[in-house]
Write a structure and sequence with these properties.
Number of helices: 6
Strand content: 5-15%
Order of helices and strands: EEEHEHHHHH
Helix content: 55-70%
Number of strands: 4
Shape: globular
Largest sheet: 4 strands, mixed
Structural class: alpha+beta
Radius of gyration: 20 Å
Oligomer: single chain
Length: 199
């Protein structure tokens, strides 16, 4: 989704101590639903503490996601949430944001291509395939940083929960190679898109 440009930079939303949000561009109080709509329209904005000027954008965006998840409109799988929490405080926390950002950008660009190719229709099967691919890439990256994690589809019927000796290091190398190949492919696709959009 392309961001709408504003002449004076991002819209500034002030957050007051009573939790009210104030849009300085329209001089009006707004809601989280309003900010969600800005996101969907690609309008860039920053949320700042009305008193201190502290940037609260990340916290407010996270709050919007929380609202969707608790209303039953969630898009985040339970397994994803658990694994994501597991990364906080670990070494992968430094690498994960850039990887997730690249993955989401790739998915958004693929979504736009599919919409154009299908005349605005939503090809569910193609989205599911892309979502599965993204999840596989994410799980491969997680296994690289935490070898104790096992893939979702690798369940043992005999109840054995441990891997055979020596398998962990091979799995790490395979996951790293897979992730590097997939990231290289994503970068190639992004470069092609950049060339096309520059024509």
């Amino acid at each position: 989704m392309a961001k709408q440009k504003t002449t004076d930079g991002p819209i500034i939303i002030k957050k007051y101590a009573n939790r009210r949000l104030y849009d300085t561009s329209s001089s009006s109080y707004v809601t989280l639903d309003y900010l969600s709509e800005l996101v969907r329209k690609g309008v860039d904005f920053e949320v700042r503490d009305a008193k201190t000027g502290e940037d609260l954008t990340r916290a407010v965006l996270t709050q919007i996601i929380y609202e969707y998840e608790t209303k039953g409109e969630g898009a985040l799988p339970l397994n994803f949430l658990r694994q994501l929490i597991g990364f906080y405080g670990g070494g992968a926390q430094n690498v994960l944001p850039a990887w997730l950002d690249m993955s989401m950008n790739s998915f958004a660009e693929a979504q736009e291509r599919w919409r154009s190719a299908m005349g605005g229709a939503t090809p569910i099967a193609m989205f599911e395939k892309q979502a599965r691919r993204n999840m596989e890439m994410f799980e491969s990256a997680m296994r690289m940083f935490n070898p104790a994690l096992t893939p979702r589809d690798e369940t043992l019927d005999d109840g054995e929960g441990e891997r055979e000796a020596g398998e962990g290091s091979d799995a790490d190398e395979d996951a790293l190679t897979l992730m590097q190949n997939q990231m290289a492919e994503m970068q190639r696709q992004l470069a092609e898109l950049a060339k096309k959009s520059g024509k």
